[in-house]
Amino acid sequence: MFKAIGNYFKAPPILPVSEDKAIIDKKYKRYRIDVFSASFIGYTVFHLTKKNISPALPAIQEEFHYSNLQLGLLATALYFTYAFGKFINGMIADKADAKKFMTAALLISAISNIILGFSPEIVNVITSVFPNLEYIDTIGMPLLLFIMAFCWGINGWFQSMGFPGIAKALAFWFSNTERGTKWALWSTSHQFGTMLGALLAGWCIVHFGWRAAFIIPGVINILMSVFTYMTMHDKPQTMGLPEVEEYREGVKPSPEEADEEAHMSYFDILKKYIFFNKTIWILALAYVFVYICRYGTEDWIIKFLVDRGDSMELATKKFGSLAFFGIWGAISAGFLSDKLFKGKRTPVNLIFLAGCAASIFIIMNNQFSGSLRNIVDVICLAGMGFFVAGPQMLVGGICAVESGSKKVASAATGFCGLSGYIGAMLSGAGTGFFIDLHGWNGAFWFWIASAICCMLILSTLIRKGV
Predict the structure, then answer these.
(1) C-alpha to C-alpha distances, 215 to 152, 190, 212, 330, nearest whole angstrom
(2) Which of 230, 279, 315, 424 is buried deepest, with most CB atoms within 10 A?
(3) Mean pLDDT across the chain, nearest whole number?
(4) Which of 118, 73, 133 is nearest to 210 (CA)?
(5) Are 248 and 254 in contact (CB under 8 A)?
(6) CATH number assigned to the domain covering 24-247+267-461
(7) Residues near 4 by Cβ (< 8 Å), separated by ≥ 6?
(8) How far is CA 162 from CA 151, 166, 417, in A?
(9) pLDDT above 70 covers what percent of the chain?
């Protein structure tokens, strides 16, 4: 069975390059549009079944009376499997068919969400076998939390398969001279997905209850998996096309470089560009703190607003500013690092992290009332989204890919992603812990301290010209 699965996901063979330049040009233009469309739309809809947990947490707590720590552990289940899955799946994706890899991930992620939506009914069936036991105090509540966490963890593993395949496709279909711009544009799919995921989940909760926030996005993503299967493609060489550098710039790999990598095993390339690459390790460590800030704000800010007195509808509308301005933050970070800082990413990361910390500090101390409080909230949420999107896109994305060989592009982003989602796990459980211990101010200081730690770590790369 495992052999059959491996053969199914195996990357297509490299085909001979066509000598007709007109055909090559026509195919390249078409397939590059296909790949970018599948990457952008596919990663956007991935978030419909990933960012729906945040709006659902208050409703789940209200119905089942779980503590903030328990809710944090539920959210952390995804980050735990996502963390290790991103690196492992990153290595697998380097050798897999990007189309099949991404499509399968989207499909199974959708199914796990649907099962989670029906988890209370599943628990009712199970506990009906034990009619003499009290539902709330014995089996039911712990079992429900376990099933939800299990489904959310399974979701995390298959969510982690989405980005590695996309990273591979972007690395092979777009050259170094255009990759920064294309990557920045693609990375806005995260913000679009986060915004749409929260708004869709919030709408589902208001009209149909929290269960619909998992079931409806799951059904949508099953349909979208058909689209990704039809439009995603593996690297150009598997389509009978030359490498993108040769196609766009007429540049072929130097004989020495080609000969060196031709005689290196995949593990040797992995060791050289990942495990023994000091820059990658610094980026990975910094990414821990980027993700504490990112997922702390994304996963908990709606609950903060609701706990403070906002309605779910108002809170999700405010949250939309975080995701919307994250789009412009990612684009701005890519543009500034390319144009203003001539390809150096670290100065942009430091500036954006300082802005993120300032936005968190201001909303923590927002003592206004009425419409003025709402305006300050929206501005601060916009700042959080704008400023965290830059380091999220640069540190574990472009910086990771540019620090090594594109033959391990998925593994490089996966390695940083592993560290990032360790940070996400710390963010989920840590934020819940600090809220229970010190209230919301404890959570805010946790996020601010993380931004400062990240700045200190990344500052060591300034001399390296990263």
Answers:
(1) 13, 21, 5, 30
(2) 424
(3) 86
(4) 118
(5) no
(6) 1.20.1250.20
(7) none
(8) 17, 7, 12
(9) 92
**Token reading at 99:** 């189309």
Q: Kindly tell me the burial class for residue 328, based on how many C-beta atoms sit within 10 Å of its own C-beta (0-12, 13-18, 19 or more).
A: middle
Q: Convert the pLDDT of each residue in 27-49 to its tens digit.
A: 889 999 999 999 999 999 999 99
Question: Distance between CA atoms of 413 and 423, rounded to whole angstroms?
Answer: 15
What are the pLDDT digits (tens) for 333-366?
888 887 788 778 899 999 999 999 999 999 999 8
Residues 57, 71: Cα–Cα separation, whole Å: 7
Determine contact, residues 17/247, Cβ cutoff 8 Å: no
Q: With beta carbons less than 8 A apart as the criterion, state whether 119 and 148 touch.
A: yes
Lowest mean pLDDT among 101-105, 284-288, 340-344, 372-376: 340-344
Residue the block writes with tokens 């806005």: 188
What average pLDDT does range 146-162 have in this prediction? 92
* Contact assessment for residue 198 and residue 148, using Cβ atoms and an 8 Å cutoff: no
Cα angle for residues 382, 451, 271 (degrees, 5° grid): 115
Which residues share a beta bridge with 96? 10
Burial class (CB in 10 A: 0-12, 13-18, 19+), 133: exposed
Burial (Cβ within 10 Å: 0-12, 13-18, ≥19) of residue 122: middle
Tell me which residue of 403, 381, 189, 432 sits closest to 286, measured CA to CA: 403
Paired with 10 in beta bridges are 96
The pTM for the full model equals 0.76
The CA distances from residue 72 to 78, 92, 102, 296, 315, in Å, are 11, 30, 28, 10, 19
CA distance linking residue 315 with residue 210, whole number of Å: 15
CA distances from 5 to 130, 166, 168, 215, 394 (A): 39, 20, 20, 27, 34
